[in-house]
């Protein structure tokens, strides 16, 4: 039987960019590992961030690598391995993964396969450089089919879902019933190291794990690539399967906080309601959060009420901009009245909220920013807990990226929510800082009583908001010296 080496790259970010330095256990790769193991294929997984989150090195002038670098990874690969699979989550890790793949080919001489959200739309960056196979879309079934074919002596080039170095041969892989997928192989990930960093993309109090209850999104925001990678489809686990996984993460891995990182958890509100009902019926006691954004269209006071009873303590709402003009450019529908109403309901239910905005869209002007400022102020008045402000970055493949097509950074490195390569980055970074100052002032003005709770949570290192997590990290870094607190400074 073929032996497979899976690799999740280290975290790569602009040095000191707190928006890019957010680790999370690699759920996509853990899901592939579980699937292959279920099919009887022995799998080893190198999680280059999780293996050593306290190692940081400078990378290409402006960036840092946190975790294992190429040499470290090469040293850990067993020479008897048959195929190597590398996960490429975003443009930020693409160059590193390409260099790693080529180095593995040179040193070990075995086929290298890449997959992940970035690959689905940008596979030619890899196949044209000499990487053997790129898997398009969901990887479990396609990767397994490829491995089986290679093992039987085939060349693997005709399998649906495998992109080869010829335009026109791109096809979808076989789509599985979601409930047939095994639970991610968390036993292969050094979870303790993630918990030690005390950082995630959602606030948490105890041991945490991510989870996916659905894949894809039926909406079409022009800055996002998910509508393209999921082809506008949304598929989900059955409510019972979702609750079984929550229970297992709690019982087997002691997870107390579960981040449901679906693109669109409540795309089917009845399913979301059913999940909550089963959790309540079973008396499961876990804290749930929805950090990737919940579409306003799908929320009702009734659904929020039952979500709160089921343990949802934090969710993200993404109006993106206070300006209708910019929202139109983003192809983002938003009912502002409903936004404020839902925020007030969350406040009444004590569900913490994170409100996400994108600034710096092509053509965005002062008028637009003032409208965002106003929306932000209203949201804080109505009880919003966190504000996240991202600077527009043209993700390759997304419709709004077209305007930047000729200016993309080489090898896509730098395509993140702090795009320092943009000519006007300084301007937008200044606007972002001013908006955060406004947020802090309004928070003290409109929510003075919440300040004590924030201080208590920061001191206990039990976070209910991202703001607390960020400030907690700053304090920990200032008091504990370089090596003890995460993120460490590069050597
Ligand atoms: C949750 C999430 C995060 C989380 C957690 C990431 C994690 N470790 O899991 C956090 C917050 C940390 C994060 C960070 C970032 N993210 Co992100 N993230 C997502 C999100 C919303 C869901 C990912 C997910 O959990 N999917 C569910 C799992 C099961 O699927 P999967 O990971 O895609 O894996 C499947 C396939 O891709 C494939 N596959 C994956 N790996 C491999 C490997 C092999 C060998 C094979 C064969 C197949 C394969 O098979 C898997 C199972 O079917 C996606 C949107 C999306 N739907 O893709 C954006 C998304 C992937 N992120 C994006 C971006 C831009 C970023 C950041 C750069 C943002 C920033 N901070 O500036 C950082 C960069 C992180 C890094 N250094 O790479 C973009 C990437 C676009 C691009 N080309 O760059 C996306 C697509 C969002 C978007 N709006 O367009 N992210
Ligand atoms: S931003 Fe969210 S809602 Fe919009 S298309 Fe992407 S995943 Fe869907």
Characterize the structure shown.
The protein contains 17 helices and 17 strands. It has 2 domains: 4-163, 3-Layer(aba) Sandwich (Rossmann fold); 200-446, Alpha-Beta Horseshoe (pyruvate-formate lyase- activating enzyme), CATH 3.80.30. It is globular and about 65 Å long. It starts with a strand and ends in an 11-residue tail after the last helix. With 491 residues, it is an alpha/beta fold. Strand 4 and strand 5 form a beta hairpin. The longest helix has 22 residues, at 425-446. The protein has a 6-stranded mixed beta sheet with strand order 3-1-6-7-8-9, sandwiched between helices. The chain has a 6-stranded parallel beta sheet with strand order 10-13-14-15-16-17. Helix 9 (239-253) packs across helix 10. Mean pLDDT is 93; it is low at 165-170. It binds cobalamin (B12) and iron/sulfur cluster (SF4). Cobalamin binds at residues 11-12, 19-20, 22, 24, 26-29, 31-32, 85-87, 89-93, 113-118, 135, 138-140, 143, 201, 212, 224-226, 261, 263, 292, 395-396, 415-417. Iron/sulfur cluster (SF4) is lined by residues 217, 219-221, 224, 226-227, 263-264, 293, 295.
């Amino acid at each position: 039987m073929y032996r497979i080496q899976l690799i999740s790259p280290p975290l790569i970010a602009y040095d000191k960019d707190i928006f890019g330095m957010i680790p999370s256990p690699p759920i996509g790769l853990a899901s592939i590992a579980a699937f292959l193991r279920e099919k009887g294929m022995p799998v080893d997984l190198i999680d280059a961030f999780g293996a050593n989150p306290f190692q940081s090195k400078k990378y290409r002038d402006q960036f840092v690598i946190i975790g294992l670098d190429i040499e470290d990874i090469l040293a850990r690969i067993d020479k008897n391995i048959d195929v190597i699979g590398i996960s490429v989550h975003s443009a930020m890790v693409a160059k590193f993964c390409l260099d790693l793949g080529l180095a593995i080919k040179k040193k070990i001489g075995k086929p290298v396969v890449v997959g992940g959200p970035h690959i689905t739309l940008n596979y030619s960056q890899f196949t044209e450089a000499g990487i053997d196979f790129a898997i398009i879309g969901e990887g479990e079934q396609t990767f397994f089919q490829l491995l089986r074919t290679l093992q039987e002596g085939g060349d693997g080039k005709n399998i649906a879902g495998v992109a080869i170095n010829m335009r026109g041969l791109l096809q979808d892989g076989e789509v599985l019933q979601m409930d047939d997928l095994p639970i991610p192989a968390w036993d292969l990930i050094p979870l303790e190291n993630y918990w030690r960093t005390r950082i995630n993309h959602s606030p948490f109090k105890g041991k945490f794990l991510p989870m996916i209850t659905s894949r894809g999104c039926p909406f079409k925001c022009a800055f996002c690539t998910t509508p393209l990678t999921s082809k506008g489809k949304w598929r989900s686990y059955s409510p019972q399967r979702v609750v079984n996984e929550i229970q297992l993460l709690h019982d087997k891995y002691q997870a107390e906080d579960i981040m449901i990182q679906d693109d669109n958890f409540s795309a089917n509100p009845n399913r979301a309601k059913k999940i909550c009902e089963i959790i309540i019926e079973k008396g499961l006691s876990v804290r749930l959060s929805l950090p990737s954004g919940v579409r306003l269209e799908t929320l009702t006071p009734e659904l929020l009420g039952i979500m709160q009873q089921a343990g949802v303590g934090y969710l993200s709402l993404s109006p993106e901009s206070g300006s209708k003009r910019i929202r139109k450019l983003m192809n983002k529908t938003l009912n502002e009245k409903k936004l404020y109403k839902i925020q007030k309901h969350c406040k009444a239910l004590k569900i913490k909220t994170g409100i996400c905005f994108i600034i710096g869209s092509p053509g965005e002007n002062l008028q637009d920013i003032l409208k965002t400022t106003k929306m932000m102020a209203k949201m804080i008045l109505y009880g919003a807990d966190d504000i996240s402000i991202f600077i527009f970055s043209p993700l390759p493949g997304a419709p709004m990226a077209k305007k930047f097509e000729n200016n993309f950074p080489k090898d896509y490195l730098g395509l993140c929510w702090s795009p320092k390569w943009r000519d006007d980055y300084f301007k937008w970074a200044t606007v972002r800082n001013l908006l955060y100052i406004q947020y802090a002032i309004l928070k003290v003005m409109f929510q003075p009583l919440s300040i004590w709770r924030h201080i208590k949570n920061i001191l206990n290192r039990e976070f209910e908001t991202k703001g607390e997590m960020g400030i907690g990290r700053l304090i920990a870094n200032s008091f504990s010296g370089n090596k003890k607190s995460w993120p460490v400074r590069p050597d």
